[in-house]
Amino acid sequence: xxxxxxxxxxxxxxxxxxxxxxxxxxxxxxxxxxxxxxxxxxxxxxxxxxxxxxxxxxxxxxxxxxxxxxxxxxxxxxxxxxxxxxxxxxxxxxxxxxxxxxxxxxxxxxxxxxxxxxxxxxxxxxxxxxxxxxxxxxxxxxxxxxxxxxxxxxxxxxxxxxxxxxxxxxxxxxxxxxxxxxxxxxxxxxxxxxxxxxxxxxxxxxxxxxxxxxxxxxxxxxxxxxxxxxxxxxxxxxxxxxxxxxxxxxxxxxxxxxxxxxxxxxxxxxxxxxxxxxxxxxxxxxxxxxxxxxxxxxxxxxxxxxxxxxxxxxxxxxxxxxxxxxxxxxxxxxxxxxxxxxxxxxxxxxxxxxxxxxxxxxxxxxxxxxxxxxxxxxxxxxxxxxxxxxxxxxxxxxxxxxxxxxxxxxxxxxxxxxxxxxxxxxxxxxxxxxxxxxxxxxxxxxxxxxxxxxxxxxxxxxxxxxxxxxxxxxxxxxxxxxxxxxxxxxxxxxxxxxxxxxxxxxxxxxxxxxxxxxxxxxxxxxxxxxxxxxxxxxxxxxxxxxxxxxxxxxxxxxxxxxxxxxxxxxxxxxxxxxxxxxxxxxxxxxxxxxxxxxxxxxxxxxxxxxxxxxxxxxxxxxxxxxxxxxxxxxxxxxxxxxxxxxxxxxxxxxxxxxxxxxxxxxxxxxxxxxxxxxxxxxxxxxxxxxxxxxxxxxxxxxxxxxxxx
Length: 709
What we know:
Blueprint: H1 15-31, H2 37-67, H3 80-112, E1 115-118, H4 126-140, E2 147-149, E3 163-171, E4 180-185, E5 193-196, E6 204-208, H5 209-215, E7 224-236, H6 250-260, E8 266-272, H7 277-287, E9 294-297, H8 306-310, H9 337-342, E10 346-350, H10 356-367, E11 371-378, H11 386-396, E12 400-405, H12 413-426, E13 429-431, E14 438-439, E15 443-450, E16 453-461, E17 473-480, H13 483-497, E18 509-511, H14 515-531, E19 537-542, H15 548-559, E20 563-568, E21 585-590, E22 595-596, E23 599-603, E24 610-614, H16 620-624, E25 626-632, H17 636-651, E26 656-659, E27 665-667, H18 678-690
Parallel strand pairs: 1-6, 8-9, 11-12, 12-13, 14-25, 17-22, 19-20, 20-21
Antiparallel strand pairs: 2-4, 3-4, 3-7, 5-6, 7-8, 10-17, 11-15, 15-16, 16-17, 18-25, 19-23, 21-26, 23-24, 24-25, 26-27
């Protein structure tokens, strides 16, 4: 088949619709009655949080294209306007499913298990009403800022993602007086879930803060009657637009743009389904919301509060036991980490194995008198990062510390600005990313003076240097003192801090330089092996797949007879089962208690197997617009370990969803097969390897029947 044939629009799935299908898979976890009830709350909360970000970034970007008159079609043959239309249809169905899950499945189950969520303040008993009114007077009223709108007070700025209550007011005693509009923000500084006295039968009662405020709206407008009041929430364009070439100071420019997130174009308005039509008309007009961007909700707005509910005490029996990562046998807590790395490369598999060795690597380097320099890239770090503290300590200890802090890491910009300034104050040399590119690579270089000369120690990973998310995201890390990798690591940092680029590279492959070409070459090599009568085999695991050049190469490989298995958590624009095109490609998505985040690539290579890990997905942004690193796993036993990880994930029949030719995902029919959840398997395996006493560490519940970035 001619290569151009593989680029036909009908051979591709639209990126945004594919992402919505992923969020539906997350929602399916919330609907699965075999999963502990509070875990289901968590999954429903994640779908709501995911959808918020989707609108603020992806839908906002499409709206910008429409405003600019951009009509170019995507790889699936859809214009931005057509994409928005299809997204709207899909999201309406998804939201309806979210709320039917909440109202018909989760709320009754919560009540059966001793937690009653009072949905409307009208349903309060007299005793509960007295308690709520007292709570309002003592705790809520002093914090509120009611805002009326009239000729002297214009419609206020309604901040992005905030929950508000709009009201129609009429002056007391003037029945024919014109209705006036007022609004009050539900304060985020107060708990949204308010605990009421327990029932006599021991049931815990809770009500949402907005219901308490709505019940007491009269107290905010004493000279008026409340004609109607309803919660509403607006989502705004939060995609930063920065002209980096024109920005004299990138740090100041990003700080300026961050403030604009609060008043970007309104792209979605959520209102209560029973909202007064007159109130809705005012909100729609003032926020410039068309029917397409209006969502009437049958339930409480913003389901992310369910994550707070998950944290309520007294319901541990309805949650999975807390996962405790296993120690790494090769790296005891009291070891000299550099001595251990010299014995051979060490593979880390998070969150099944602890992230502590990565923290120890930086901490020990900071305090080791033999260490001369530490260099690191930081994309997202935790709120109280021990790695940041160690880097600052290293700088204060007089070591050469160079850190690239990516200021353009979406929604972490403010956090990263704070860390960057702190590190500079400690004496570290801080680089604020590169013009036009995001630095998404995960690499740490430690330069150490030893008896036989200078030695370079390197950590490479698929995930961020974030000790918090390392407990939730599945990632691979490698600790090595390989001289060729050390040379490449030095070259990476010289490139990031200056203009130096070596004539050649030893082991690492970098985007946007030549990583994409490397991937295409590796896929092409399997294609040639198959065409020449050999066996072609590719297994690749990633977060997202939407690069057309890579998909064309995979289609060519499949057509040549290469057997391809893809484990793609989220977006997948490739289609399976197309005759003569993708019959040899299988795609699965694993959605479980941990967020699948590692990027692993296996190529059979006529029996000379090659295995790589990377920070990059197969997406244009990763391969063409970011600094990314792919590194080989060369030590034979470690290579076998990574192949074993892929093998187990391909056998997962509990948390795996398999892509069908009609673009839907289906769970595996397990009839007659023993259940295998890859995440549970790896958790148990890590403890066995470390020799952990099963009574000393909480063991995760194995879910017998059938979490996103």
